[in-house]
Amino acid sequence: LVPPIAYSTMYLIYGFYDLSLNYFLAFLVNLVGTLIGGSVVLFFYKRGNYKTRL
Questions:
Q1: How far is CA 34 from CA 2, 8, 14, 22, 50, in A?
Q2: What DSSP line would sit under the chain, residue for residue?
Q3: How much is the average pLDDT of 23-30?
Q4: How many CB atoms are closer than 10 A to CB 23?
Q5: Where do transmembrane segments lie in this chain (predicted)?
Q6: N-term to C-term CA, the chain
Q7: Global pTM?
Q8: Which structural domain, as residue segments, surrounds residue 39?
Q9: Quick check: is 40 in a domain?
Q10: How many CB atoms are closer than 10 A to CB 7?
């Protein structure tokens, strides 16, 4: 998640707004993917009997 933020900020400072927007959208895609993946993992974790084994 950090490289898209860094590149977006760098291109925003240098005035390349189209590249900055591309990296900001890449950050949003990464963030949404992380949230969806975490939700799926927690759904199956709560559904299974894994809580007693950890």
A1: 13, 19, 29, 18, 21
A2: -HHHHHHHHHHHHHT-HHHHHHHHHHHHHHHHHHHHHHHHHHHHHHHTT-TTT-
A3: 93
A4: 20
A5: 20-45
A6: 28
A7: 0.72
A8: 2-47
A9: yes
A10: 17
